[in-house]
Write a structure and sequence with these properties.
single chain; about 100 residues; alpha+beta; three-stranded antiparallel sheet; 3 helices
């Protein structure tokens, strides 16, 4: 079984660029999902809360549609830097959907 992650940069109709992630197993695309690794049920800070909410959400949906409320009670769009931070701190990991 061969697997690879393909990252393509695409332009929108308005000229903005975004990255599209596709995970291929045996040349068949698989959906990438976020898995919460801490499994805190409640409490903690806003980052723990956002990671609980991201559990089983697709990476595409998280980066395109997901908004969260930060510590200053401001609604923010979930961005690539947030995803990378959450992965690097061990709160979440990205897997193929089973």
């Amino acid at each position: 079984m061969s697997s690879q992650c393909v990252v393509k940069t695409e332009k929108t109709a308005f000229g903005a660029t975004h990255k599209r992630f596709t995970y291929l197993e045996d040349n068949k695309p698989r959906k990438l999902v976020i898995v919460n690794t801490k499994h805190t049920q409640y409490g903690g800070n806003y980052i723990d809360a956002r990671c609980r909410y991201l559990d089983n959400m697709s990476v595409y949906y998280a980066l395109e549609k997901y908004y969260y409320v930060n510590a200053k009670n401001v609604t923010k769009k979930y961005k690539m830097k947030d995803l990378l931070y959450d992965i690097n701190t061990g709160r979440i990991m990205v897997c193929t959907q089973v």
